Amino acid sequence: MKKDIAYLQTKKQQKQPISVLTCYDYPTACMQDAAGIDIVFVGDSVGTNILGYKSEMEVTMADMLHHLKAVRRGVTDAYLLIDMPYASDCNPKQAIANANLFLDNGADGVKLEGGKEKTSIISALTEQDIDVCAHIGHNPQIHGTKAATHGKTVSKAKELIQTSSDLVDAGAKLIVLEKITEEISQIITESINIPTIGIGAGRYCDGQVLVINDILGIGPEFKHAKRYQDYNRLTYEAICQYKEEVENGAFPTDANVDNIAFDKLERVKKWLALKQ
Ligand code: KIV
User: Residues 175, 197: contact at Cβ < 8 Å?
Assistant: First the structure.
């Protein structure tokens, strides 16, 4: 069954946690979809996690489209969300054109970073019937890669609560809460009627999102994430073993080769001898 906003909304109402993972390629999309992940998310974290960029600010529309197309081919049931990259949503006209490009290439909805300053963009997108996921707290496109926790002071906590309600009024259908204190995330989750998806925002959000690299053990460890696999070690060991076996002749073996029939080989050899 194809998941949509109504499905995610029902999960919030029924207090069933929503699972979200970033995804950047076809094979991983197939696995996430088969595993029943609710939202497969092409994040602009593709820049730092896959493309070797220093920050999210370097990610372009072309980068996002390239990865969206790969992920789209692997997704059947999951809701496919994509990030609007840096400076792709500066005004309503630009945001609508870029969001439509994503929808035309298979995305179900777009996520954009920012607080109050993004309400007019969100309203413009929702007026066009485009599903929008807002994103508050730590915003890598605005604050850079170094993430500080938001919602620790009374004034900042009030601001986050008010902003989340303003974003709902603007028409947001989902909201990511990144690096926000657990208590304030819980208040936001209980006070708005759209699903909240937390990353480093504690246990009481309607769903959780993590970067796929972080759960697989690719790259550095983060407090907010959990490693379920040691991909770096397993991959490095496989590469070293392959190199060693190529160098010592242990690969390929009989099992990896195809042969020509003996009589045909004899004929080739005779032909070669006559030629010389
Ligand atoms: O691009 C990203 O990875 C994000 C996180 C919130 C998951 O935006």
Answer: yes
